[in-house]
Design goal:
heterodimer; A: 497 residues; alpha/beta; Rossmann fold; 2 domains; 6-stranded mixed beta sheet; 3-stranded antiparallel beta sheet; 50% helix; elongated; B: 493 residues; 5-stranded parallel beta sheet
């Protein structure tokens, strides 16, 4: 038997807001709970009636209990329920007593089991989030549900969840605006984070008593989001640093031919870099509590083509790295910086000749590097050890000018996917393969500077200063990356009616 | 939690070492195993402090108490002992007295004041935060050089003395300290500086105690002597300046008489007053305490406090610890869902109706549920029709059912027109049950879901909707209640 069915509903603390998510079967109630809780383990199924009991979830951030969300089964017998309530019609102040009486009389009746589960948290003081599917037409059968909710007198807000399309949103908005204080288009699977915050702040205006805790919850969620971006920047910075400094060595006898050892060594280096990338991706997934999406190996999350592409393929380099022109520009800029340093040391007597020569050399190297983009050839050095009569073969670190851009773009892109992936969205992600994250010019310049200086920086303090600087650049990138820079398949745009 | 559970201090290196070790072992567990294991703990966690949550978890998952703290203490003790031995040796060397020539006070001034002040200054430079040093050219390189030559590296040397079986966890973390990881950069610096201060403080304590021992158990004679062109006024001026911080203590400032009578020349030993020669000791002791011990003690306290804070910050900033906190949060938010949902998709419903097409009947009655619009390609011509649900009352529904069932001939079939996209509810099941009880057991009841709206636009072509209807109707186990959908090739707008 389903574990949820056996669970006694958790009573919500009275002092905190409790939002109960109600609606017709199969409107995405559990999806909305999953998204707001940022929890991939809330059971979601396309089969109507999967949720059979109401279930209260504490919304916590860093152990701080902010409010409660209650998932409920769908209405199954709304008209008969309403008929009962209307047949016992009384003054407005006695209506909750009528509902209590309904629950008392019908709690053992399987035909009204869902209605009892829905109404119980409401009479316990919950605020109502009424969910409808904006991709299906409005129908008179919903009127009974809306009337029951109106009967309860509790603060209520309608969420239009466009599951398959947005074809009927307008009709729903017109219908719902008559009975609900506020209506919000909220796509449970693809809504942007701002929408989650908007939902809480809107409900705070509907129920002034909850204004402080719900606005506080919104603030906490926003802060958590910001902290996650900072932590993600650290993960990406560490990964990039490790990848830029990774090398693999092997010692062989001087009598041995080094040739057969070269390719396996290069392969090992590539494997190690891919492992580092996988590790950092897993850390990013874990940061956003999306690890569980990958647990069932029979249904792994399918990543978009650029992410499943081999890290060193030509297509990946061109998609994520620098274009030919930007590669030459960036090389020229790096050359100019180096030349500028020489100029600075001459006290101006070089008449910027260093900068000019550096720019020219950089641009030339960029052009040559671009010709070899597809290869991304790995450096392999051979060191003789005369005393021990051995040779040490070392593959890496990869010093190709485009390499950090490839890695960084891939990780930024991956972060973008994860950060914008709603926890209710259990379907594999499929994104167009021609999406790109173009780094801003200052950021690209910082990356070049970092990649150039890192191999030469050995002292921990200096290294830390360099890494901290990169971390700041990446944090800035994450916080300011425009949504349209990377693929974004979210689609909700409507505001409160 | 078992009785062996150990308590971790958030400021102790042992906590970080054990945490790093445990978190690396976590890679061998599946997420499901971790969620199941951590569920009871997450539910019992009351603290919101990140570090406390992590360390409570660590204590919970560590099967047996580790000896990491003891080994850290051992390493610390070894460093301190070496410092004490070095301080003792240094003091003995500086105050070496054979009786043939007095101890030249210039030497302790050089060793216990000028050298100590220089080392203190270097330590302060090494301690400067990167926010202050990042704009000063070459300062970070200078800091790195200072740290590279720092006696705090003795920690790594003494690590080799730890039994090899116990070394692994400590080596792993200390290797991380040497790595390029930003997470550990501050920790590396402050671990080295903190143990360097322990070492240096031990030297100073041992030097002072040795000096006191020599003063107590031997008869020392002091003089001042230098090849440089320094006269008595210069020395008086120098010593007065040095004594300024402790001048308020009696006898610690050298008098003019003392300076005049304790200058030592190889040629005129007759001017030297051996009685006064011992009077330098209060000055030298105060000098050692003021310029060696106190600055080092302050640096030790500073380094220790910052080190403790850095350990605490590192604990919460470990990437794996961030994952752990997320997991604990999740388990508190959804404690009833420790099991990961099986995301294996169910078999896709077939595009074609699952039920056989009904055999043709002579007459057809139509019951329209919830004002479902009749599609243009509706294949039947009903002899009678009625509405059910929608805006009707329960009484009107009952009348409609009476109308339909009472007038239905024995060879007739009943079509129930429903919206394909609306999931079948208990109300529909109740309707079907009522109808069957009022009709002949073999009268075909055909549930006809239509995918089109009132404008004949296709609302959905998703085959799952039909699948839901089929499953629900099959649950009635009525062989004559069948699904008979209206299909359309039109796509939703």
């Amino acid at each position: 038997m389903n574990r949820l069915e056996n669970t006694t509903p958790t009573p919500a603390p009275k002092s905190l807001p409790n939002l109960v998510v109600v609606g017709h079967p199969n409107q995405g109630k559990s999806s909305i709970v999953s998204t707001l809780l940022q929890d991939t383990t809330i059971q979601i199924a396309s089969l109507p009636g999967t949720t059979t009991t109401s279930q209260s979830y504490p919304v916590q951030i860093q152990g701080q209990h902010l409010f409660n969300l209650t998932d409920t089964p769908g209405f199954e017998n709304a008209r008969k329920t309403l008929a009962y309530l209307q047949s016992h019609d009384t003054t407005a102040d006695k209506r909750l007593d009528v509902i209590k009486q309904f629950i008392a009389e019908h709690k053992s009746n399987s035909s009204f089991a869902h209605e009892c589960q829905i109404l119980q948290p409401i009479i316990d003081g919950a605020g109502i989030l009424y969910i409808v599917d904006g991709s299906k037409p409005y129908s008179p059968s919903y009127e009974a549900e809306i009337e029951i909710l109106r009967w309860t007198g509790r603060p209520r807000m309608a969420l239009i969840n466009p599951i398959e399309s947005s074809n009927y949103i307008t009709a729903w908005q017109q219908a719902l605006s008559q009975s609900f204080s506020s209506t919000l288009v909220f796509n449970a699977c693809f809504s942007e984070f701002d929408k989650h915050i908007q939902l809480l702040r809107t409900f705070a205006t509907i129920q002034p008593d909850w204004s402080t805790p719900l606005n506080h919850a919104a603030d906490c969620m926003t802060e958590q989001r910001s902290n996650r971006q900072i932590e993600a920047a650290t993960i990406i910075t560490l990964a990039l640093t490790e990848m830029l400094t990774t090398s693999i060595s092997k010692t062989i006898s001087q009598l041995d031919d080094p040739e057969p050892h070269k390719q396996p060594l290069k392969d090992k280096l590539l494997t190690k870099i891919r492992d580092l990338e996988t590790t950092s991706r897993n850390e990013l997934k874990s940061l956003y509590n999306l690890t569980t999406l990958y647990i069932d190996e029979t249904d792994p999350l399918t990543l978009p083509d650029p992410l499943t592409d081999d890290i060193f393929t030509e297509s990946a380099s061109s998609i994520f790295g620098l274009s030919k022109s930007s590669l030459i520009t960036s090389s020229a800029a790096t050359g100019a910086i180096t030349g500028g340093i020489v100029d600075a040391h001459t006290g101006g007597t070089s008449f910027l000749l260093g900068t000019a020569i550096g720019t020219a050399i950089g641009a030339g190297l960029g052009f040559i590097a671009d010709q070899n983009l597809a290869k991304l050839d790995l450096p392999l050095t051979i060191q003789k050890n005369i005393r021990q009569n051995t040779l040490t073969l070392t593959a890496g670190p990869i010093a190709h000018i485009n390499f950090p851009h490839v890695i960084l773009s891939r990780l930024l892109y991956f972060h973008h996917i994860i950060a914008n992936h709603n926890h209710a969205n259990r379907t594999p992600i499929t994104l167009p393969s021609d999406d790109n994250i173009n780094l801003t010019k200052p950021a690209a310049k910082d990356i070049n500077k970092f990649a150039k200086q890192l191999p030469k920086t050995h002292g921990p303090q200096k290294r830390q200063a360099l890494i901290t600087s990169l971390n700041q650049t990446i944090t800035h990138l994450l916080q300011n990356l425009p949504i349209d820079q990377a693929n974004d398949n979210t689609s909700t745009t409507n505001n409160i009616s | 939690m078992n009785e062996h559970t150990q308590q971790y201090s958030p400021h102790h290196l042992a906590a970080l070492i054990d945490l790093q070790s445990q978190l690396s072992h976590e890679n061998n567990l599946t997420d499901k195993e971790k969620l199941t294991r951590d569920l009871p703990l997450a539910q019992s966690l009351t603290t919101t402090n990140k570090t406390s949550r992590i360390l409570t978890w660590l204590a919970h998952v560590t099967p047996t108490p580790t000896r990491t703290a003891q080994y850290i203490f051992l390493l610390s003790a070894l460093i301190t002992t070496l410092g004490l031995l070095l301080g003792l040796t240094l003091s003995k060397a500086v105050y070496h007295y054979t009786g043939s020539a007095p101890i030249n006070i210039i030497t302790p001034i050089a060793v216990f004041m000028f050298a100590q002040l220089l080392l203190t200054l270097l330590t302060i430079i090494a301690m400067l935060p990167s926010s202050l040093t990042k704009h000063i050219p070459l300062i970070t390189s200078f800091q790195d050089s200072i740290i590279a030559l720092n006696p705090g590296h003795l920690l790594y040397l003494f690590l080799k003395l730890i039994p090899s079986k116990q070394q692994t966890n400590m080596t792993a973390l200390l290797s991380d300290l040497k790595s390029t990881q930003t997470t550990f950069a501050s920790l590396q610096k402050w671990t080295i500086l903190r143990y360097a201060q322990s070492f240096s403080l031990a030297i100073n304590i041992a030097a002072i105690l040795t000096f006191i021992y020599l003063l107590t158990f031997s008869d020392l004679a002091f003089a001042w002597s230098t090849t440089l062109n320094l006269n008595q006024q210069s020395i008086a001026s120098l010593t007065q300046t040095i004594a300024t911080p402790f001048a308020f203590i009696p006898d610690t400032s050298p008098t003019t008489e003392l300076i005049q009578n304790t200058q030592f020349f190889r040629g005129n030993a007759a001017d030297f007053d051996p009685k006064l020669a011992r009077d330098w000791w209060p000055f030298l002791l105060a000098l050692m305490i003021t310029y060696s011990f106190i600055p080092r003690l302050l640096l030790y306290i500073t380094a220790s406090q910052i080190h403790r804070r850095v350990i605490k910050n590192t604990i919460t900033n470990l990437p794996a610890a961030i994952s752990l906190l997320t997991r604990l949060d999740h388990l508190q938010s959804a404690p009833q869902n420790p099991q990961v949902q099986d995301t294996t998709p169910t078999a896709k419903p077939p595009n074609q109706p699952l039920d056989p097409q009904p055999q043709s009947a002579q007459t057809t009655s139509l019951l329209i549920v919830d004002q479902t619009p009749i599609p243009t390609n509706f294949p039947y011509t009903p002899t009678q029709s009625a509405n059910f649900a929608g805006t009707q009352t329960i009484e009107q529904d009952a009348q409609a059912l009476d109308l339909i069932t009472n007038n239905l001939s024995t060879d007739a079939q009943l079509i129930i027109l429903v919206k394909l996209w609306e999931p079948p509810t208990q109300e529909i099941l109740d309707l079907l049950t009522t109808l069957r009880s009022n009709l002949n057991k073999q009268t075909p009841i055909l549930i006809t879901p239509t995918p089109t709206d009132e404008h004949n636009n296709t609302v959905t072509n998703n085959p799952e909707h039909l699948h839901h209807w089929t499953l629900k109707v099959r649950s009635l186990a009525d062989p004559y209640t069948l699904i008979n959908p209206i299909l359309t090739n039109q796509q939703p707008n």
